[in-house]
Design a protein that fits this description.
The chain has 660 residues and is an alpha+beta fold. It is built from 17 helices and 39 strands. The strands form 9 sheets. The chain has an 8-stranded antiparallel beta sheet with strand order 14-13-10-11-12-15-22-20. It has an 8-stranded antiparallel beta barrel with strand order 24-25-26-27-28-29-30-31. Bound molecules: adenosine-5'-diphosphate (ADP). Its cofactor is biotin.
Amino acid sequence: MFRKILIANRGEIACRIIRTARRTGVATVAVFSDADRDALHVALADEAVRIGPAEAAKSYLNIPAIVEAARASGAEAVHPGYGFLSENPEFVEAVEAAGLVFIGPSANAIRAMGLKDAAKALMEKAGVPVVPGYHGERQEPSFLAGEAEAIGYPVLIKARAGGGGKGMRKVERPEDFVAALESARREAESAFGDGRVLVEKYMAKPRHIEVQVFGDAHGNVVHLFERDCSLQRRHQKVIEEAPAPGMTAEMRAAMGTAAVRAAAAIGYSGAGTVEFIADVSEGLRQDRFHFMEMNTRLQVEHPVTEAITGLDLVEWQLRVAAGEPLPKRQDELSIDGWAFEARLYAENPARDFLPATGRLSVFDLPEGVRVDSGVRAGDLVTPYYDPMIAKVVTHGRTRAEALARLEGALAECRVAGVTTNAGFLARLCRLPAFSAGDVDTGLIGRSGEELLTEPEASEEAFALAALAALGLLAAPSGDDPWQRLRGFRLWGEAVQTVFLDHGGAEHALRVTMRGEGRFRVEHGGVATDLCVQSFDGRAVRVAFDGHTLPATVHREARAITVFFAGRGHAFVLAEEAGHQGEAAGGDRLSAPMPGLVRIVSAGPGARVKKGDPLVTMEAMKMELVLAAPRDGVVAAVPVAAGDQVPEGALLVALAPEEAA
Ligand code: ADP
């Protein structure tokens, strides 16, 4: 076994590899970009080496810098993780040229599977069923249109160099073929620098079923059963499971044999995945699965295979790369129960899944289930890398049990400061077709808007947000009655109104204090009575109609997040008209959402006019120009271009207005 390895990756997969390395007594070297100086993977590794600026092209894709880091730190081998350089044969060659071991397949095996067309031709020869279609050299539009005609519509145009669903177009009718071809080519050209395509039969009701394979340097290849990754959004996996629902022993054997044959055909060593597409318009049928592509690395979703086999695939990778034979033979492998994995992303489903950035002010993930994460509370989610922040993995004796655990675990994901898809994932668990195991890749696309939109918060959640907004949750400090009456007039009615933004609308909430932690909150004609029993700054115990329930409330600047009854809800305290400082036309310019400061147009001492652009931010893939709220003189600019700022951060302060 190796003494020390370098991990050429970041985020959850770097952390996950470090865990196995530590358990097996292998020292680890992390690499990091400037944006990741304080990242979890850097903190977990034994050593860490800076490899470049934030942009991946100059850091995590920087082959010379990574190889030099490995050499200088005395690592014997390099684990590429997934993504970045994991399927780059030149990286393998550079690692080997430096006298180090690449923890993965040979450069030749990666090349053989690197282009979809060549891989399909190779698999056809090896007797592996491939999707009917044209995957030859000719690229003239008229020729390809003729092939599409012969295959029969609908067809799918795919970039041969494709990945991540890029350069892929479904074409329904012959008259649309040429336009779709041109658009697929343009996308492929800009994403991969290779505009060549193949044309396939488009499966009406496809399921994505993939087989985990493992080879060693001694010519052994086994498979570790299948994963079903059909729950996809725009060809991107969302929730994966193992085994595949409805899989028969015969079909599993047929797919496993085909996958092993595919790996053996290229002398494969290490972890790999053979992806198949199964046409299930007439159910799962042994003669209706076809090779799609082979991923020559560890997959994001490998934990579901680990959960049902009880194995550690990273440990297998390390052993095989160190020259050991595979730890088990095919007949020693078996399936135990069922497993799911949900990918938790920093993104906003209600806004077309735009990646979200910002500081994770709360990041509490469920306990008692496997969570692979690359971040912790307080970390920044930057716009530079993949927005996946964690994977939640559950296991059960049956599919229903594992799925119920997943739903429960998702309800316990409490994240604030950054928008996530946790609610979307939880709603997916409740889709009837999914819980019945009747999945296909179009399921999410066919499901309605209600899957994407966060339902409005309950009255209980609104009431808790209103109390948080008024500072009324704070535990009574001592016996000071003045303290407890904070925010309320001492004479007359103890009533206060607060305005909260929620789900894009402003809500007025009228809070009446009724003594000793008891409140009435009126909102849109509905009154909610609640009694706060305890609050430790985060966790609240609160009784509604005599029924005590737990909740978690977090407030940072004007952002309030309430976690109640398995759902998280975000509120923003509206600017109070006439409030000193924060008011429109006030002294402060603050960030309306988390983002990156791009341009700072005025420095301290500058005289500005109302409406002058002061700061340009990039947030949610938009450019925001923030203008001076009034005429005045800039007193302070606590941010600089390049800073990542949370929502509500002070960007510019104006000197107080001189009394006229
Ligand atoms: P990429 O490498 O870009 O991710 P894949 O070839 O792996 O592309 O395909 C991605 C997804 O596209 C599959 O999981 C499946 O949902 C869908 N897909 C691929 N080929 C077909 C096909 N022939 N018919 C229908 N859907 C397909």
